[in-house]
Amino acid sequence: MANSGWSWYLFAVPAIHIGRMRSTAVVVNYRGGEAQQFLQHAVRRVKASINKAQALVVPSGYLRQVFQQFGMAVVVVPNIVDLDRFRYRQRKAIPDNATDTIELFFPRHLEYIYGADLAIEAVAQLKSKYPGLKLKLAGAGPEHNKLKQMTEDLQVADRVEFLGSMSPDQMVEAYQSAHIVINPSRVDNMPNALIESLACGTPVVACRVGGVPFMANHGEQALLVTAEKVDELKEAIDTLIRQPDLYESLRQQGRQHVEQWGWQTVRAMWLEVYQQALTENR
Fold first, then answer.
1. Highest mean pLDDT among 12-16, 88-92, 203-207
2. Domain containing 74 — which CATH number?
3. Are 220 and 65 a contacting pair, CB within 8 Å?
4. Using an 8 Å Cβ cutoff, are 52 and 20 in contact?
5. In whole angstroms, what is the distance from residue 118 CA to residue 133 CA?
6. What pLDDT score was predicted for residue 3?
7. How far apart are CA 214 and CA 195, in angstroms?
8. Pick from 203, 184, 194, 128: which is nearest to 159 by CA?
9. Is residue 224 part of a domain?
10. One domain for residues 275 and 228
């Protein structure tokens, strides 16, 4: 099913009405980070349909707040991380020598809302201080050509590598080989990329948007910065490079923190949702 907005609504409504016609319980899942803007324009239609479902499930406390603001009850069931695949990897600290390779990894699609341009700007501002600093960008998307040109304009084309679409195993390898994962989103909900990074023991710098502050505490499991503030993003990266004790603390606390999103825990939450939906549908 589509994640959010009108595409989600147009998928969800037929399922809800077919379920009612067949006396079948319906559980609706909403996942997108732009729910606030969508509901401001569509709340009447959405409420009329969602009230016919047995449950509305969202993956974060952030989306629960948004939907409750518009008078809709929700159940939170978080995203799942495969802890067997995204394994914690012991690694050496970031190199002391600034000329040695320091690898940043951006694990999102190349879309404007995910802020790859901000990551490139941060590298441009840090390039003289850390000659070994590199940035790897995962995924494809509509911003690809613009971002490639940006690396040329900022004279960091030799520092930025575009990896293209990656398989799950390639993503694991990228998380584990990176020193820092950066998630400079302008809009977000509960990004799997953040969970997977923490599971692999790779410290994260992320923007404080949407559901991200509900996932990690600043200075405990990640470093959180203000969206669109490249100076803050740059400073957070610099801080992790210069403070090995903080770096190691984030690695360890991050891995412990993601245990709550393992399958056994989340499976029990989904079973409870389905059982309650069946009970209400009798």
1. 203-207
2. 3.40.50.2000
3. no
4. yes
5. 15
6. 64
7. 12
8. 128
9. yes
10. no
